[in-house]
Specification:
The radius of gyration is 20 Å and the shape is globular. It is an alpha/beta fold and about 280 residues long. α3 runs parallel beside α4 and α4 packs parallel to α5. The chain is built from 7 helices and 15 strands.
C-alpha cells in the first residue's frame, strides 16, 4: 500500500531514483489504478507513475542512498572551501562582503538545506518557499522587500511523458513558470550583473529560461539536476570579486551535474572587498 509521504522507486526505471510520494490522484489512494505524483529525493524532478510501478524503499535503503549523496555533496563543498582558503592567503589585509542571495523554492526541504549550506559558507541568504506556479505572481514584491545580488528560482520540473517537442513550453511541467518568473524579475532589474539569476530544475527548458534573462539555467541536455547544483553555482558568483567575470566553464566544473544539466552566460562576480580589515 503506497501512501503520501512514502519513499519509493520506479520498477520501470530500474529503481534508479528515490522519490517522495507527493500526492495520489485517480482511482482509490494507494490502489494500483491510481497515479502517484513524485518528487525526487535529491533531484529536482517532478514525475508521475502508476502505483503498480512503484516499490517502497526501506529505511536502510533510504539511509544508504542518502549517505552516498551526502558524501558527494561534502566532497564538492570541501573542494570549494579549500579553494577559497588558497585565494584568501594573499588577501589577509582585506575583508570580504559576498553577494546576498534570495532563493524562491517550490520544495521546503530543499530550500531549508540550501539556506543552511549558504550560511555555512558565509553567504547571507534568505529563503522563501513558493510553489513554481506562485513564483511569477510574487517575485516582484519579494524582490522589493528582500534586496539581493543573486536570485535563485527553482523547485521541481520535468518533461511530460510522451511529449517530444523540446521547444514547446507545453512539454514541461514547470518551465513556463520559471520563464515567467525570470521575465518579471528582469522587469524589476534588467541588468544581468546587478541581479544575477539562476532558474530551473530537472529537464527544464534551458534556452527559454536564458532567453527570458537568466544568467544560469537548467537543463542544456534536458538532464536531471541535483538539488545542490544551484548552490555550487551561487557560491562561485558570491565569492568572485565584482571586477572579475566568472568563467562559465570553470563554474560548471564545481556542480554535480556538469554541463549536461546546467549552463549559463558570462557573469560578473558579486563579492566586494574592503580595506582595511578591522581587528575587532
Amino acid at each position: 500500500m503506497v501512501q503520501i509521504g512514502d519513499i519509493v522507486a520506479r520498477l520501470s526505471h530500474q529503481q534508479d531514483i528515490f522519490f517522495h510520494v507527493d500526492r495520489i490522484q485517480g482511482g482509490l489512494k494507494g490502489k494500483d489504478s491510481a497515479t502517484a505524483i513524485l518528487k525526487g529525493l535529491n533531484l529536482r524532478l517532478l514525475a508521475d507513475a502508476p502505483i503498480s510501478d512503484l516499490v517502497l524503499k526501506s529505511p536502510v535503503e533510504v539511509a544508504n542512498y542518502e549517505r552516498e549523496d551526502h558524501k558527494m555533496i561534502y566532497q564538492k563543498l570541501h573542494k570549494l572551501t579549500n579553494q577559497r582558503k588558497i585565494d584568501l592567503d594573499d588577501q589577509r589585509e582585506f575583508f570580504e562582503i559576498p553577494g546576498r542571495v534570495l532563493q524562491l523554492d517550490g520544495d521546503q526541504d530543499y530550500l531549508h538545506q540550501c539556506i543552511k549550506t549558504y550560511k555555512q559558507m558565509g553567504i547571507e541568504a534568505k529563503g522563501i518557499c513558493k510553489s513554481e506556479v506562485e513564483q511569477p505572481r510574487v517575485i516582484r514584491k519579494v524582490l522589493q522587500e528582500n534586496p539581493a545580488d543573486i536570485l535563485v528560482l527553482t523547485g521541481h520540473d520535468g518533461l511530460i511523458s510522451g511529449k517530444k517537442d523540446f521547444h514547446s513550453m507545453d512539454s514541461y511541467r514547470s518551465s513556463k513558470y520559471f520563464v515567467e518568473s525570470v521575465l518579471e524579475a528582469r522587469r524589476f532589474q534588467h541588468n544581468r550583473d546587478a541581479l544575477v539569476i539562476f532558474a530551473g530544475a530537472c529537464q527544464s527548458n534551458y534556452e527559454a529560461i536564458l532567453s527570458a534573462g537568466a544568467n544560469f539555467a537548467s537543463s542544456p541536455k534536458r538532464m536531471l539536476i541535483h538539488a545542490f547544483d544551484p548552490v555550487f553555482i551561487v557560491e562561485r558568483i558570491a565569492f568572485t570579486p565584482t571586477d572579475q567575470i566568472v568563467s562559465v566553464k570553470d563554474i560548471l566544473t564545481h556542480t554535480i551535474t556538469g554541463t549536461d544539466g546546467v549552463g549559463g552566460v558570462e557573469t560578473r562576480g558579486q563579492m566586494r572587498r574592503g580595506y582595511p580589515r578591522s581587528p575587532y
